[in-house]
Amino acid sequence: MPLPQATFYRYSMPQIESAPAIAGLRSGKKAVLVFFETDCPTCQLALPYLNALKIDSVQVLGISQDDERSTAEFVRQLKIEYPVQLDHGLKISRAFDPQSVPTIYLLDEHAQVQRTLVGFDKQGLNELAAALGHPPIAPPDDGAPAWKPGCSSRHLEPETGGDGQGSAAHFLRRTAEPATRITLRDEEDPFEYCRKQFGDALPVVPPTVEEVSAMVKATGLAPEAVIARVPPFYGEATVEKIAANAVMAGCAPEIMRVLLPLLRAACDERFNLHGVQATTHFAAPLVMINGPVRQELGFWSRQNVFSNVARANSSLGRAFQLVLLNIGGGRPDGIDMSALGNPGKFSSCIAENEEENPWEPFHVTRGLKREQSAVSLFAAEPPRGVSEHTAHQGKTVLETISFALATVWSYRTCLMPEAIVILCPEHVKTIHRDGFTKDQARQYLFENTGIPVRYYVDAQRAEGTQLAANYREITVRGETCYQKFRSPEAISIFVTGGTAGKFSAVIGSWSTGPAGSQMVTYPIPDR
Question: In sequence order, which residues have a C-beta less than 8 Å from that of residue 332 and are 6 or more positions away?
Fold first, then answer.
């Protein structure tokens, strides 16, 4: 099972005594063993860093869980400079029993495990190097994330009838095998079969060959074309497999025009879908639609925008979640470890009410042109309602919203979270009437959202207090506070909802920045 985050720790492994001999390991010398799969993106990221461990007293050895051809291609493309050995029959993997790959073991001169590093973790790599008397090998500013969880170890995967080895290297290919066809017996109920095998605890539409073919045809692409590799198991999302999930979700064929760029956005490394899928937090991807595609495909942006009011919103959001479940492997009874979950994991898709928005649309703020259509993704908590029906000034409305913003993630936690302010049309009109631009409204929220310093006194190690020395002091309404957000850009504004009722909302984030999830926006192609 992929782990939600890499960790560096001391570990005792009695299984090592029965491990088979490892060719190339010399007795009396420390060794760094790294177990990997050729099609694991985290392995592709982590293994080249070990090239820098050039110490005469330490031997570095890669243990490949795949076949000779894919391993040779992996070594060639990633320029691995240390020896690599094939794990025939996965005997070495079963002896060491790594739960995910990459896993790095530091062995002492007697082949006993001294340290273990799971996944990709820059701090852990540098601690490993320091333990060997070596300078740091993972620079903080080289463009790679601070950490990235790995993939399930090959020896823990279900048997496939082969020798347990991987086939050819898949991680760079652009086409994959056709989706499997299943023929049911006459007495089998296709709806019940599909619900049990592919559903999200609710019934799904059986993806017949005819329905899937029509969905594929709407894309103009080959059925076997790989659109993305979906974390946490990095399954290959081909056009045909995506289409099958779209059929199950009840999509119209034209929704594929949005679903494909949505999946590309979700698998953008900046969004960190692996972390979002595996965290214990509430987060679920929130899909936000902008541009002409709203009218063209019927995306809803008025009253009940978060509800089940439009086929386009509901079916796109559900198709996306089914892809994450069936292709990515993010099952709520497995790798998805959310403590309480989020109803958005059924479907969470909204569109901006651009007609009631006096400012530039959200996707323009994100750098696209007004005439373009776009899909944005945010790792979101459930919405927190904000009611302000009596204020006549825009400043007062923003002040009320700032009180809700102060609570995102945890009340005393500052600088780390981000948030989206969902402004209803009535509130945005009041704010705009008082002369606020969108940037000015965001700046006001940034400058006036703070947590009083007095709430950190005698807080008995409450969450957020440990980092208080790093927080920035500001004055809000005459009181000394810690500033909640690191910058105005940590607050986004999205206008949507019905024109009757002065209810807005605040949506908090999961972990943010390079080590967490960053919002992404992708253009949607024209018809």
Answer: 338, 341, 345
